[in-house]
Amino acid sequence: MSKVIVIVGAGPGIGNAVAEKFGSNEFSVALVSRRKAKLEKLVATLEEKGIDAHAFVGDAGDADSMKDAFSQIWEKWNDIDVVHYNAAKIKAVNIANETADGLTRDFKVNVGGVMTLVGLVASDMEKRGSGTILITGGGFGIQPNPDYGSLSIGKAALRNLSASLHQALQPKNIFVGTVTVCGYVKEDAPVHTPVNIAEQFWKLYTDRKDFEIQL
Fold first, then answer.
1. In the sheet where 3-8 sits, what is the strand order?
2. How far apart are CA 58 and CA 105, in angstroms?
3. Cα separation of 46 and 52, whole Å?
4. CA 48 to centroid of chain Cα atoms
5. SS3 for the chain, per residue?
6. Rg (CA), the chain
């Protein structure tokens, strides 16, 4: 039986590349996102490449929505081996013009959703004695950009959370790792291509050592 990776915040960039990388290494892929039409296109593309892929609608910033999506995933597979959190609220608002309510709403997606996932999968992973949680980080968490103030704050918190979870869950044989992407992701970028980023996630999964790869 193949292993299963769940990608939350699936899209045509990093999410799709990670799905291809793991899918080509005998993983079944569960794609989670808010938009059904987008998911169906991604599934079709992956299936053309011989990858077992399935779509599940869910909102990373809504705990009840994520619970519903994971309930459907567990109806199809008994176990989840890897979860990749790739969701983010990206908006160009200068931090001087941000509001407390705006930060709070964004934080639910940029950071809080990770804890929703941990609450959903950690217990089962611990019982099986293995599991992996992968997180897409960003360079704004190290060098903040005031024009993307909320995202910068979220990525800084996400990096801190990844390091803390790495330590906290390690005794339970659950590996937590993040790829901190320090650049704009484009297909023709010198370094920050979706495929190259997916390779770093695969390295985290296979090596299971350091909590972070900076790219």
1. 53-57, 27-33, 3-8, 82-85, 131-138, 174-181, 212-214
2. 17
3. 7
4. 23
5. CCEEEEEECCCCCHHHHHHHHHHCCCEEEEEEECCHHHHHHHHHHHHHCCCCEEEEECCCCCHHHHHHHHHHHHHHCCCCCEEEECCCCCCCCCHHHCCHHHHHHHHHHHHHHHHHHHHHHHHHHHHHCCEEEEEEEEHHHCCCCHHHHHHHHHHHHHHHHHHHHHHHHHHHCEEEEEEEECCCCCCCCCCCCHHHHHHHHHHHHHHCCCCEEEC
6. 16
Q: What is the pTM of this model?
A: 0.97
User: What span, in angstroms and rounded, lies between the C-alpha atoms of 99 and 141?
Assistant: 19
Nearest to 51 by CA among 26, 78, 17, 72: 26
Q: Compute CA distances 44 → 54, 95, 99, 188, 191, whole Å.
A: 9, 39, 40, 23, 27
Q: Is 9 left (phi over 0), alpha (psi -120 to 50) or beta?
A: left
Q: Comparing C-alpha atoms, which of 100, 134, 130 is closest to residue 117?
A: 134
What is the rounded end-to-end Cα distance, in angstroms, of the chain?
33
pLDDT in tens, 123-155: 999 999 999 999 999 999 999 999 999 999 999
**Residue extents of the structural domains in the chain:** 3-214
Q: Give 77-122 pLDDT, tens digit per residue.
A: 999 999 999 999 999 999 999 999 999 999 999 999 999 999 999 9
Fold of domain 3-214? Rossmann fold (3.40.50)
